[in-house]
Amino acid sequence: MPKTSSDHAQEASDRGEASSVCAQLDAIARIAGKLSGAQSALIRLQVPVSGALDGRTVFGDGLIDIAGDMTIFHAVMASPGGLIVADAQGDARFDAYPLVRFFAGLPMTNDAGVVAGCLYVADEAPRIEPATELIDDLRAMAKTAATTIELAEIAHCEDVLMAMGGGTAVEQEAAQVNRRFEILADALPQLVWSAPNDGLSDYFNRQWCEFTGAPASESHGTGWLNFLHPDDVPAAKAAWATAIATGEPYMIEYRLMNADGAYRWMLTRGLPVTDESGAVSRWIGTCTDIDDRVRTGDLLEFMSRELSHRIKNMFAVVQGLISMALRKHEGMAQVSQALQLRMVALGRAHDLVRPRFAEGAIMRSQTTLRELIRILTQPYVVDDPGRLQITGGDTVVSEHAATPLALFFHEMAINSAVFGALSVPQGQLSIALSVTDDVIVEWRESEGPVIAEPPVPAFGIGLTRLTVERQLGGSLTLDWQPQGLAATARMPLQQLHAE
Questions:
Q1: What contacts 146, CB < 8 A, 6 or more positions away?
Q2: What is the rounded distance in angstroms from the CA atom of residue 222 to the CA atom of residue 243?
Q3: Quick one: 63 exposed, middle or buried, by C-beta within 10 A (0-12, 13-18, 19+)?
Q4: 173-192 in b/e burial notation, b at 16+ Cβ within 10 A?
Q5: C-alpha Rg value of the chain to the nearest Å
Q6: What gap in Å lies between CA 202 and CA 27, rounded to an integer?
Q7: I need a labelling partner for 301 at 20 to 30 A (CA). Which of 24, 53, 343, 466 fits?
């Protein structure tokens, strides 16, 4: 049967609608990539959507080849909670993709339980412990993609009905847009809000109304501020005003009052929607409940501080016991002082790298190697800090590596203060750091006493070698040159990061 003009019009409408859905899915994939900081973010479909979608089944950027791998696709589809691989090295499923170290694949499931495909993010760098919040955000993006596809199917049916007549095109198009947005907003687990470019909110989804126990109209304009904790209102207003003025994304944490009158912590984000000229036409945002994480983090941080305080008290007790035990023994004063200084060094290192918590999750040590060296050598150059130069690269030091590193640098510094460059006013010490797969520490002393031969074993050679070679899996060379000690320690970078 030959095609009618109505058939051709419907086909043109399908092509336009498919192009629109393609653009939306591309945008969702890009947002997922930005949220995760990953180099690749893809959407892979398994169901047809409103026609041929320009013949595409893959959307986004990056490692397109992985989207066609059915082994990975089926593994993700078979994992309701998603397939999260912190480090894909050694995982046979990723043998064909050596550049992929971190991978997260989330099924795109709508409220009806229909799985439309998968959302992938992949990166060349492994993630030791992907943040729970990141995975939650990616799940929300996967659901957004599924809802977008569902809306496209609904729109396709509505277009067919429009072609059959009923209402003006403008009225029906406006009704479609509103219906699609409301379905999408109500499908999300977060509280969703929207505002025009003047910042006066005009939309709140069903979850917002259920949470606050108030109709959306009470939150319109600036009414939403009435549901915030009074202490958080000034910061929220200031941050929102800045976003409106600059067009930059809005993000803040505040306490929001629920229907029972209790406050819960929310992470609120808002993104600008821009027109073709780049001007902001509307804001769309979400509020995510992070109350449990915040309160758990506060408790864990309190417990960590208390434990740290008790450990430091133990160091003080041990110092006192050493002093008491050796006080009556002549000739042991130097031994007592050396042991007490080592305990002080360990206490400083512990305080630098003790675990800290936020929102219920452990915050990995942010203490760097240079900071550790600076803290441990500071007492020996307090009169003239310019005598010490630390140059080169830097890296974060884990709690596990901090103790042997503290002992190593303490021994090197105290021996320099007794025998080497730091024992005389004009002495100089330079520490050069190089960070690649190995961390190389070049310790160079100059303008100190002339060293005719290596010092006696009291120099601490045994302890420095033990810490570098046995505990950190590295190597240590010591060269006593006439102008001063030249020492080079080489340690695998992964040993300094190991927990």
A1: 108, 109, 110, 114, 115, 116, 117
A2: 15
A3: buried
A4: eeebeeebbebbbebbebbb
A5: 31
A6: 24
A7: 343
pLDDT confidence of residue 180: 61
**Confidence (pLDDT) at 11:** 46
Q: How many CB atoms lie within 10 A of CB 421?
A: 24
**Nearest-CA neighbor of 454 among 410, 406, 462?**
462
CB 225 within 8 A of CB 234: no
Three-state secondary-structure class, residue 58: strand
Question: Do 154 and 179 form a contact (C-beta atoms < 8 A)?
Answer: yes
Mutual orientation of helices 369-377 and 399-418 as an angle, nearest 10°?
40
Q: 136-172, pLDDT tens digit by residue?
A: 888 888 888 887 777 776 665 555 445 544 455 555 5
Question: Mean per-residue pLDDT for 376-387?
Answer: 77
Contact (CB, 8 A) for 283 and 195: yes
- Residue 204 Cα distances to 120, 188, 238, angstroms: 30, 12, 21
Instruction: State the burial class of residue 115 (Cβ atoms within 10 Å of its Cβ: 0-12, 13-18, 19+).
Output: middle
Collapsed DSSP state (helix, strand, coil) of residue 486: strand
Number of Cβ within 10 Å of residue 159's Cβ equals 20
Q: Parallel, antiparallel, or unpaired: how do β-strands 428-435 and 388-392 relate?
A: parallel
Which pair of tokens denotes residue 355? 């675990």
The amino acid present at 22, given as its one-letter code, is C
**Which residue reads 């078979």 in tokens?**
78
What are the φ and ψ backbone dihedral angles of 389, each rounded to 5 degrees? -120, 125
Q: Residue 267 CB: number of other CB atoms within 10 A? A: 20
Q: Tokens in use for 109?
A: 């499931």
| Extended beta strands in 22-101, E state | 40-45, 58-61, 83-85
d(CA 284, CA 430): 54
Work out the end-to-end distance of the chain between its first and last CA atoms, rounded to an integer number of angstroms: 71
Contact of 213 with 219, CB cutoff 8 Å? no
Question: Which amino acid, residue 216?
Answer: A
What gap in Å lies between CA 253 and CA 293, rounded to an integer?
Answer: 12
What token pair was written down for 428?
A: 């100089």
The pLDDT tens digits for 393-429 are: 999 888 778 778 877 887 788 788 878 888 888 999 9
Residues in the chain: 499
The tokens of 73 are what? 């696709």
Packed helices 333-353 and 369-377: angle between N→C axes, nearest 10 degrees: 150
Distances (CA, A) of 223 to 192, 216, 240: 15, 9, 14
Q: How far apart are CA 80 and CA 150, in angstroms?
A: 19
